[in-house]
Amino acid sequence: MTYEERQERREVLTYVYDVMKKLGYNPINQITGYLVTGDETYITGREDARKTIRKFDRDELIEELMTEYFE
After folding, report:
1. For residue 1, what pLDDT is reported?
2. How far apart are CA 27 and CA 69, in angstroms?
């Protein structure tokens, strides 16, 4: 995976996190729910957050989180 690919995944997760936080959701719980279940209703459709997170497969996002955690 290239640096650019990793950066884009981080940007997507950060964007969705920020939107969820701004709207009063608990973004950690909501993003985790989405990643574990695949249920897109965990992510709000407002400000295109749901559309944005779908740019990547859930497995790719989990891989990014795990890579970042263990580095």
Report:
1. 76
2. 18
